[in-house]
């Protein structure tokens, strides 16, 4: 009788241990495969976004993904008057601008292997209200989640709103990110003037 009880206890113990081990593996898998913050700043090859502003012609622009190499992505930003090439390092926990260059002709040079000349974290985990980070002198803060915003490109639900304040406090930028789409609205305020830029059209390659 005693031996039977011992065997039953061992069986229960082994079953419990196996169940906990399986749960641990499932949790680890879920954590490893959860979407990173890059999902709120997607930069897949061939994707593009068109932004329009009623407040300033220079705040209207087109953004195209040109090159990718590992976790590095180069995009072209063209507002019709000036063109910039920007290189981002895309990680699970942050998306960082690491290189920026002005281009004065129609060439599309590849800057992925160029030395970093910038270090500005655009978005960073955790994406929870109150989360803050200091980057390139700018103070960033997640001010809201679950945001709804209407743009010419459509209505976007469950967005994340980030505020960035310049080092001297004279400029404030609000960026609204939609998972799987990217930035859908930007509000830039300086010297009492606010310029709003909204997403008008886009294509995300998967």
**Gyration radius from CA atoms, angstroms:** 23 Å
Indicate the mean pLDDT. 87
Q: How many DSSP E strands?
A: 12
Shape: globular
Helix/strand/pairing category: alpha+beta
| Ends apart, CA distance between termini | 63 Å
Strand content: over 45%
Helix-strand string: HEEEEEEEEEEEE
Characterize the largest beta sheet: strand count, sense, and whether it forms a barrel.
12 strands, antiparallel
Helical residues, percent: 10-25%
Q: Give the low-confidence spans.
A: 17-35
With strands numbered from the N-terminus, the spatial order across the biggest sheet is: 6-5-4-3-2-1-12-11-10-9-8-7
How many alpha or pi helices?
A: 1
Explain what this protein looks like in three dimensions.
- The protein is an alpha+beta fold and 206 residues long.
- Helices cover 16% and strands 50% of the residues.
- It contains one helix and twelve strands.
- It has one helix at residues 2-33; strands spanning 48-52, 61-69, 72-78, 83-90, 94-103, 120-124, 132-135, 138-151, 154-165, 171-178, 182-190, 193-203.
- A twelve-stranded antiparallel sheet has the order 6-5-4-3-2-1-12-11-10-9-8-7, with no helix packed on it.
- A hairpin with a 5-residue loop joins strand 9 and strand 10.
- The radius of gyration is 23 Å and the shape is globular.
- The protein starts with a helix and ends with a strand.
- Residues 17-35 have low confidence and may be disordered.
